[in-house]
Design a protein that fits this description.
This is Cytochrome P450. Belongs to the cytochrome P450 family. InterPro entries: Cyt_P450_B, Cyt_P450_sf. The structure is a single chain. With about 425 residues, the chain is α+β, with helices and mostly antiparallel strands. The chain has one domain: Cytochrome p450 (Orthogonal Bundle). The protein has a six-stranded mixed β-sheet with strand order 1-2-3-9-6-4. The protein has a three-stranded antiparallel β-sheet with strand order 5-11-10. α9 packs across α12 and α10 packs across α12.
Length: about 425
């Protein structure tokens, strides 16, 4: 993305000074980042299924908390669309706003609508369908075994850096036709993390720009010498996407495959290491790793909030008056744990009706969820097989979550185990 402010049609925006809804709550702060479920409960009590919130810089938006309401938003593109140029707040947004990588309009599949979205999503789907899931599982196991071998003799490691983030990173760059190691690839992954989940002192806008530059070079290389990879299939597809369209869509594919999948692995391992019921059910065979992963999507989904949708016209949602151009944040974690669908606080591992991959035309394109499942399942199964006595190296209360309202993943996951002979 450019570091300048995004383009938009001024005639489509509302006047400045759009009112902030009474009782709007800031989506920030240490307490929210560590225990977001408490804020979701509070918002439900105060505001119902759709709550007024404030994003970075006190920019107003609506957080959709209800399962039914979120399902409605994602399946009614005629009312809640993806083109962010509809936003009625653009003239108040500074060029260095940290959420620009999320909402600044780009010629990406994420912001297209109608026939154009179906064309672009179709290219991604066909490119991903070329990935053999059995080969991916085999490659992920090899990657997992190599990563484990690097720390297995020490008897302890910090899994987030040594395993959880590294495995999907290596897998996704491999299927996209990039080298699986090297400083160039690592810089790309670091910049993607900053773009999606910036920490203090990070510059997400600049990081996003570097990601685009690296992928422009990749597309140029694949134009010259195509190979058996996702990027080459997008380059040679009959839809004739431009280089910039492919770059933007590759960013979406890689970002969705790496960071959320890593946090999915992380959150599953955390539950296995801290929740006795969860661990016993898996080790005792009453719950497969696949079912455990599915339960985590309900309870601790890796993408907890997603920005967003923009109202096409004035409408009503959850008893709220939504103005044309208002921004809606999809509260995926809140919706997945909505007491209206789980009144007894019980989540069935066999139920796959969660909204972790969103819904409607803009849901995660098939077969991406299946590929993410292959990566995550292989990562968890291989680790448990190789290190059967794996346990936390700290007390569960000492684990901390990354300070993000968007992604749900630990800052670190220190573990210990019996050292393996090298």
């Amino acid at each position: 993305m450019s570091t300048s402010s995004p383009s938009f049609d001024p005639s489509a925006t509302a006047p400045s000074g759009c009112p902030v809804a009474p009782g709007a709550v800031r989506l920030s702060g240490a307490s929210y980042q560590q225990t977001p479920t408490e804020l979701y409960r509070s918002l439900r009590r105060e505001h119902g299924a759709v709550a007024p919130v404030l994003l970075d810089g006190d920019v107003p938006a609506w957080l959709v908390l209800g399962y039914a309401e979120l399902s409605y938003v994602t399946t009614h593109d005629e009312l809640f669309a993806r083109d962010s140029r509809r936003w009625n707040r653009w003239e108040t947004i500074p060029p260095d706003w940290p959420l620009l990588p999320f909402v600044g309009y780009q010629p990406s599949v994420l912001f297209t609508e109608g026939d154009e979205h179906r064309r672009r999503a179709g290219v991604i789907t066909e490119a991903l369908e070329g990935v053999d899931q059995f080969e991916l599982a085999r490659d992920c196991r090899r990657i997992a075994e190599r990563l484990i071998a690097d720390f297995a003799g020490s008897g302890r490691t910090e899994l987030m850096s040594s395993y959880v983030h590294a495995l999907p990173m290596r897998a996704v760059v491999q299927i996209c036709g990039m080298p699986v190691s090297g400083s160039d690839t690592q810089q790309l992954v670091d910049d993607l993390r900053i773009s999606l989940d910036a920490g203090e002192g990070d510059d997400p806008v600049a990081a996003y720009g570097r990601v685009g530059d690296r992928l422009r070079q990749l597309v140029k290389d694949k134009r010259a010498v195509p190979g058996p990879d996702v990027t080459s299939r997008m380059v040679t597809h009959g839809a004739g996407l431009t280089d910039e369209e492919i770059v933007q869509d590759l960013i979406s594919v890689i970002a969705a495959a790496q960071q959320p999948t890593a946090n999915w692995i992380c959150n599953t391992l955390r539950l296995l290491l801290t929740d006795e019921r969860f661990a016993v059910n898996v080790s005792g065979g009453r719950l497969s790793v696949g079912e455990a992963l599915n339960e985590v999507l309900w309870l601790d989904t890796p993408t907890q909030n997603f920005i967003g949708r923009w109202a096409v016209r004035d409408t009503q949602l959850g008893g709220r008056h939504i103005r044309a151009g208002d921004c809606l944040v999809l509260g995926i974690a809140a919706a997945n744990t909505d007491p209206e669908i789980w009144p007894e606080s019980y989540v069935g591992a066999e139920n796959s009706a969660h909204l972790s991959f969103s819904g409607g035309e803009h849901r995660c394109p098939y077969p991406a969820p299946l590929l993410a499942d292959v990566m995550a399942r292989t990562a968890v199964e291989t680790l448990l097989e190789q290190l059967p006595d794996l346990m936390l190296a700290v007390e569960p209360a000492e684990l901390t979550w990354r300070p993000s309202i968007w992604m749900r993943g630990l800052s670190a996951l220190p573990v210990r185990f019996s050292p393996m002979a090298q």
